[in-house]
Amino acid sequence: MYPNMRGKKFIFVTVHRRENTENRERFLAIFYGLKKLLQDGVPVCFLALYASEWAIDTYGLRGELQEMIEQYSDTFAYGPALAHHHEVIDMISQA
Question: Once rounded to an integer, what is the mean pLDDT over residues 20-25?
Answer without folding.
Answer: 96
